[in-house]
Structure formats: C-alpha cells, structure tokens
Write a structure and sequence with these properties.
Mean pLDDT: 90
CATH superfamily of the domain at 31-92 and 207-269 and 367-435: FAD/NAD(P)-binding domain
CATH class of the domain at 31-92 and 207-269 and 367-435: Alpha Beta
Bound molecules: flavin-adenine dinucleotide
Largest sheet: 8 strands, mixed
Number of strands: 19
Shape: globular
CATH topology of the domain at 31-92 and 207-269 and 367-435: FAD/NAD(P)-binding domain
Structural class: alpha+beta
Oligomer: single chain
Radius of gyration: 21 Å
C-alpha cells in the first residue's frame, strides 16, 4: 500500500491539527507502517489484573524492559495507549547510534569512577539489539555502517577527539576518518567538510524491530494491551495503575512513555522537550543513484544541534530526516518544509517523488542526560534520550530491569544528575520549547 506523498489533507494542502498525535488507532502513515511485518493485535485491558511489573508504554523502552524482565522470569503487563511502536520508536530514523549524548558531562561529574560503565552503556543497546534480532529471528533490516559528517571546522575537531577517544577504547577497527575530498565518493555530495565512519553503529527498520521484540515478549508470557491509556498511578507498597476499563496492581511500575506521556507531573513535568522531527521517504532510487550517493549503505548524521540525518531503506529509498519547526508547532506541510533540506544535500535527486512524509516527538533533555530514576520505592522511569534512543532505550530497559531486581548502580549514574525544569504549564512551556529550538539553531549558526 502506498500512502499519499504527505499525510496531509490533499484537498486543502493543510496539515491536520496535530500530525504527531493523530492516528490513535493505527501507526502514523509512514514508510515503516507501509512495510511493517505482520503482527498480532493486542486487546485493550478490560479487567483488573495482578502482575510483578506493570510497564507503561510499548515503545523500545517499554518493550525492551518487558522482554528483559520476562527473560529473567518476572510476570509483566505492558499497557499502551495506542499501538506497539506507535510513538517515536515506530517512526524514528532507525539509526543505531552509540555513545551517550551527555557522555562528556557525565564523565566530568563522575570522573574515572564510572567512565567505563558510561562508555559501555553507550554501546550496550547495540549488543542487546543484535542478540534479540538473532535469538528471536526478528526481520528488521539491521545493517552496520554509519558516518558523522562535519559542517563546521569545529565539527572536524570534534571528530578527531571522538576518533582518538574511541581508538583508546579499542574501536579502531570500526573507525575511519574521511577527508573532504573523499566524501563525494562516499556520499555523493560536496556539502560536508569531513566525516567519521563508525561501523559499530548501523541502521534498521525501527517499527519492525519493536513489533518483533513485542512478539518475542508475548511469547515469553508478557501480557500486552493496546488501546489502553493509563490515567493515573496510585502510589503505595503495591502501586495500582489505573485505566478507563481496568486496573493493574503490581510490585513495580516502569514508566516508559517518553515524550508522549503526562504522568507523574509533580516529579516529571517540564523535564523533557517534546521536540518535533520529520522524515521524508523518496520513491526507490535506481542502483546507479545508490552507487553514487551511498555505495557503502551508511546511516548519515550531521553534527548540528538541529540536525539532518538520512540513510537508505532496504528497498533503496532515501529516508531523509531533520528538525524543522523552530516554532514548536507542526509544519503545515512536512514535505514542503523538509524537501529543500534534502535537495540542498542532493540536488541530483530533486526530481524524485516523495512517497511518504511523517514526524514524531523526540524527548530532548536540556543537559542531554537521559532521565532515569525512581519515584518512591517502586515506580521507575526512563526517558529523554535526546535523539539516541534506538540503541540507548534498549540499554535503559536493562537498567530498569536491574532496578526491579534491586540493583541501582547504573540507574544512579543518571538519577543523581540535577536537571533544569522548563517552567510553567504546557502552553507557556510550548514557547519555552520554541525558544530552546531557537537557541540550539543559533548554536549551529555560530
Ligand atoms: C522522527 C524521529 C526520528 C528519530 N530518529 C532517531 C534515530 O535515527 N536514532 C535514534 O537513536 N533515535 C531516534 N529518534 C528517537 C528515538 O526514536 C526515541 O528516543 C525512542 O524511540 C524512544 O523510545 P521510547 O520507548 O522511550 O518512547 P516511544 O517510542 O515514544 O514510546 C512511548 C510510548 O508510550 C505510550 N504512552 C505514553 N503515555 C501513555 C499512557 N498514559 N498510557 C499508555 N501508553 C502511553 C505512547 O503511546 C508510546 O507508544 C527519533 C525520533 C523520532 C520521532
């Protein structure tokens, strides 16, 4: 099935009120939804249940947590307001990027004490994904190969530092610095000043990964409920998670709603920017075009704060993503907003039809340190991966499972970091998001 070139109302050319939140009963129209593997429908919760652990949200964080817990023998119930993979996980660029976005500041805070753990966490998700793809036979187009590309001289300096640091970690066989004059052969564009290839990173079909992991979890006895919005959590020695038609009483609750949830506002509101990012998928490229623009099949990410990221799909489409709404509002047409960015890098693809355009919310944290922690003794949360969530959410799922088992060592590396709260309510907070985006854009322009 082919969706329209833009999930917009074609008769008016206007975007629906909020593309990022529309389609409650299905995945948003995207290349991923159109190419998703067959997956079971999970029923809504219509009764009261008891479980060891109740997980709220069925994106990568929730499903990875549930699967790890099930592998360790816990009974787990997952509640998802829409569908498995409906949020950022099923919409993402699919770039499996290692390293924590705030690695430098975490190292500064903790010194050598946690340097190894922080580094290992940055790539732990890669290992978990590879293991699960193999163990559960998940067909999600997992491939290795990734390049950071520089737009400013300072990005080149950053690449040299990263190269040195990663070589110091024994990763030299995975890395290659690419000079500007070699880049047209590697990426078919002269827009970048240099690149750092990291073949430990890679790319995948995120919705199929999430659906496959959910199926694996269900196979291990995890109870999944879709169309089940959590309306509140009653705290206590045995917390109770409430929904419209049923309740779940659990020993532990794991909150995995990321940029899409409003639960536990006293503790969590204003800590994550729900920042919009958008992706275009072209019609399939010819083999000659692929050989010209990305012969190594690399996932590509520029080093701006408000960045462009792109890669090829398994069926040779260019999936081109980026942040484009500095107002904090939806663009009226994702295609119109994003196509100039694509054409700036690849004018030779300007004639290509755009088959899909979609967007989603990334949970960005002001200091880029993922928000992991606990509320009382038995409610845990993990969110705010600032654009690194494909891999990091999997590592954090394991950290959540450790917390359920009473081990907080890795969680506390994050939970003890102080965070700045975006002030005021959701409306004024929206302006704060816009100001934040503007700030990051200005940093890029400096
Ligand atoms: C367009 C886009 C491109 C991206 N590209 C990349 C990339 O290339 N690489 C990368 O590493 N990261 C990328 N990211 C970020 C990455 O996708 C996220 O960090 C990651 O998927 C977060 O997973 P999650 O499970 O925490 O959140 P989500 O996938 O958003 O899942 C949260 C789930 O919780 C559910 N939920 C919320 N509230 C409730 C409630 N009250 N009751 C029940 N359920 C609830 C939601 O419906 C949702 O399904 C991208 C994000 C977007 C939007």
């Amino acid at each position: 099935m082919m969706y329209s070139s833009d999930p917009m109302d074609q008769s008016t050319g206007r975007a629906p009120a909020d593309t990022l939140m529309n389609y409650p009963d299905s995945h948003c129209p995207s290349y991923y939804a159109a190419t998703s593997n067959e997956s079971p429908e999970y029923p809504p919760l219509r009764t009261d249940v008891r479980t060891d652990v109740c997980v709220i949200g069925a994106g990568f964080t929730g499903i990875a947590t549930a699967l790890t817990l099930a592998e360790r023998g816990y009974s787990v119930t997952v509640l998802e307001q829409h569908k498995v993979g409906w949020g950022a996980s099923g919409r993402s660029g699919g770039q499996m990027v290692g390293g924590l976005p705030s690695e430098a500041s975490l190292k500064k805070r903790w010194g050598d004490a946690h340097a190894d753990t922080v580094f290992e966490l940055g790539y732990r998700g890669h290992t978990i994904i590879a293991q699960r793809v193999q163990q559960y036979g998940i067909d999600c187009d997992l491939k290795y190969g990734y390049i950071d590309v520089a737009l400013r001289p300072r990005h080149l300096e950053q690449q040299k530092r990263w190269h040195e640091e990663l070589c110091g970690r024994g990763m030299e066989d995975h890395l290659r610095l690419v000079a500007a004059d070699e880049l047209p052969d590697v990426l078919g564009t002269d827009k970048y000043l240099g690149g750092l290839i990291n073949n430990r990173n890679g790319h995948l079909h995120p919705l199929n990964l999430c659906l496959g992991e959910a199926r694996a979890a269900a196979g291990l006895g995890v109870s999944l409920y879709e169309g089940t919005e959590v309306t509140g959590i009653e705290h206590g020695s045995r917390p109770v998670v409430t929904t419209r038609q049923g309740k779940v009483s659990a020993d532990f609750v794991v909150l995995a709603g990321n940029a899409y949830h409003h639960l536990e506002p006293d503790r969590l509101s204003g800590l994550v920017f729900p920042s919009g990012t958008y992706i275009l998928a072209t019609e399939p490229l010819t083999e000659e075009e692929v050989a010209q623009i990305n012969p190594l099949d690399l996932a590509v990410c520029d080093q701006n704060q408000v960045l462009d990221y792109f890669r090829l799909s398994a069926d040779r489409r260019l999936l081109f993503g980026g942040g484009c709404n500095y107002s904090g509002r939806e663009p009226r047409s994702i295609e119109k907003a994003m196509a100039p960015r694509l054409r700036r890098i690849y004018p030779q693809l300007a004639h290509k039809r755009i088959d899909y355009a979609w967007g989603g919310k990334v949970g960005v944290v002001v200091n880029r340190t993922p928000l992991l922690g606990r509320i009382g003794e038995n409610i845990f949360y993990a969110q705010g991966y600032s654009g690194h969530g494909v891999s990091l959410s999997h590592a954090c799922g394991e950290v959540m499972a450790d917390a359920v088992a009473g081990t907080f060592e890795r969680m506390d590396i994050f939970s003890q970091v102080p965070h700045r709260r975006i002030p005021f309510g959701p409306t004024v907070g929206g302006y704060a998001v816009a100001l934040g985006m503007l700030y990051f854009r200005l940093l890029d322009l400096l």
